[in-house]
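ugh ok fine here u go
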Amino acid sequence: MSSYVVVGGGILGASTAFHLAKFGVKVTLVDRQDKGQASAAAAGIICPWISQRRNKKWYELVKNGAKYYKQLVAELEELGENATGYKQVGAIALQNDEKKLRKMLERALEKRMDAPEIGELKILSPEETKEKFPIISGEWHALFVEGGARVDGKAMRDALINGAKKLGAEIVYGEAVWKNNELWIDGVRTDAEAVILTAGAWGNEIPSTLGLDLNVTFQKAQIMHFQLENDMSTGEWPVVLPPTNQYMLSFENGKVVAGSTYEENTGYDSQVTEEGKKELLDNAISIAKSLKDEKIKEVRVGFRPYTPDFLPVFGKLEGQNGFYFANGLGASGLTAGPFVGSELAKLVLGRETILDLEKYTPN
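structure:
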């Protein structure tokens, strides 16, 4: 039987391994468990339809990614993986500029024509906004997007890995290197029909040994988790999108997450910083003042990988027999990662894909 090796066990690599295993091939997922893996730190908002970003190739990825989640979650639950961290709770995009609010609604209505999963769209009064997310402070109008969802990156990654194992995949927590034109996993030479590189912020390492520079860079993100003291029922609250590039969302049992920082040129420094904590807290209380008196349970750190033009790339490495590469999902990683993993698995096995993957080929 042909053997396939996936290097990098974030949400993209975990999804690729899961989908390869679904097709019944022999697959090994190798992960070093580096500190700062983006998937392990992230709490994701699935609501790409109201973005002002105009890149059509990016939108095709995230639109299909958002749509794919319900199918994927159903498949994982059939395997007994019920703790996926995914839930459709809706989204509220805060905006007090009436012209901008109307424009946002118009964009969403237009996109709903070929993305019915957007669901109901409604402009909310400040009273309705506060009813949806009770700790919101100030007088915010908002656009409610019924199809918006949240996902816990670590939970979804773990569900995909567990699902892959149940389908026969081997999981190795160790290191894969390419030397002397051979693949070695934890010091053992390994034969593979194909090697799929999904190493996120560490994505340059193996390509560099092949003589390639794929220009993977990354940003450091710090994300703050609050624990509300009163027993508020937070599990059904929608995700919150302020007019800035920040976000807020909640999980069950009083857990509220606020993010994130966007830090350049930090190296692989996974330490929480006082500057980062201050930025996160200031931004959080500008939306929900009561959070200044709540317990900060933890601050997580992750490195978001980017490729040139901030457009994800995935496909076969030209001139490198049997090597595939996927990277650069950036802040869209939790939205697009599971879907890209499914497309990548199809590409590797020569099956028909949903997207025209020539548009995303690494070069």
